[in-house]
Amino acid sequence: MSGGNLICTTTVLLDTGMVAMREPVTELLLDTAAGPVAVTADCANGKCTAVAFHNVPSFVFVLDLPVEVPGLGTVSVDIAWGGMIYAIVDATKITGGLKIENRNGPKLIEIGERIKQAVQQSDFVPVHPDNPQIRGVSILEFTEPLTGSASTGDLTAVNTVVVSPGRFDRCPCGTGSSARMAVMHARGQLQVGEKFQHRSIIDSSFECWIEGTTRVGQYEAVLPVVKGSAWITGFRQVGLDPTDPFPVGFRVGDQWHVADDA
């Protein structure tokens, strides 16, 4: 499941006419790797202007898990499900404090990968209670402390998600936002119906809120909603020549660290 990609996919489906648009609101149900996700798309003048997706129930496996990270010492990690299993770390509490901004990009990537690997090698292995094949932390989210308050309507949070082997999610991350809402709710920082702005490393923003609560196995869970916008920037045409010696493509390990046997 990817929230940012789901917003993009919905926008493409509606703006290109692959799925019929109904103004002012089009409702869709999309199948994802994490389960069915309902979508409410704002539409005007033949354009999808914003997409809100009602994500799968999200919950916390553990708060403040101490993890020993080589070179960093003990790092406090929250582990939560938001469509992927996240390790969530406050960037301001490691190595003297790191601000989530482009100039710190290489350091955030390097430290984020180290923390994630340490979590994956620890004794704590999160397993989704409804699907035991979903197990183990697969992605890491750096956060900064909240600013503003829900009561005054200006609650804001900053995050960036590190995608292996070393890339940032450019958007505020839909599943990461959902996992963070589960953590915020567990800490009493966000209640049902309260909204906050989740901002990314490039300062783009999702509007996020909790529309209800439920249970997933033994875990208290929230029903998160994430809303954002996307724009079509180009179209690509792919062809296959019958004489092409690489009809299924190829991989080179210079960027994505492809294994020798891949």
Could you characterize the architecture of this molecule?
By secondary structure, the protein is α+β, with helices and mostly antiparallel strands. The protein has 2 domains: 52 residues, no CATH class; 166 residues, Diaminopimelate Epimerase, Chain A, domain 1 (Roll), CATH 3.10.310. Helix content is 18%, strand content 36%. It has an 8-stranded mixed β-barrel. β8 and β9 form a beta hairpin. It is globular, with a radius of gyration of 19 Å.
Give the SSE map.
Elements: H1 3-15, E1 25-32, E2 35-44, E3 47-54, E4 58-69, E5 73-81, E6 85-90, H2 105-121, E7 139-143, E8 156-163, E9 167-168, H3 174-186, E10 195-199, E11 205-216, E12 219-228, H4 253-256
Parallel strand pairs: 6-7, 8-10
Antiparallel strand pairs: 1-2, 2-3, 3-12, 4-5, 4-12, 5-6, 7-8, 8-9, 10-11, 11-12
Shape descriptor reads globular
CATH class designation of the largest domain: Alpha Beta
Strand order, largest beta sheet: 4-5-6-7-8-10-11-12
What Rg, in angstroms, do the CA atoms define? 19 Å
**What oligomeric arrangement do these chains adopt?**
single chain
**What count of domains describes the coordinates?**
2
Q: Note the total helix count.
A: 4
What are the key terms here?
262 residues; Diaminopimelate Epimerase, Chain A, domain 1; 18% helix; 8-stranded mixed beta barrel; Proline racemase; alpha+beta; 4-hydroxyproline epimerase activity; 36% strand; Pro_racemase_fam; 4 helices; globular
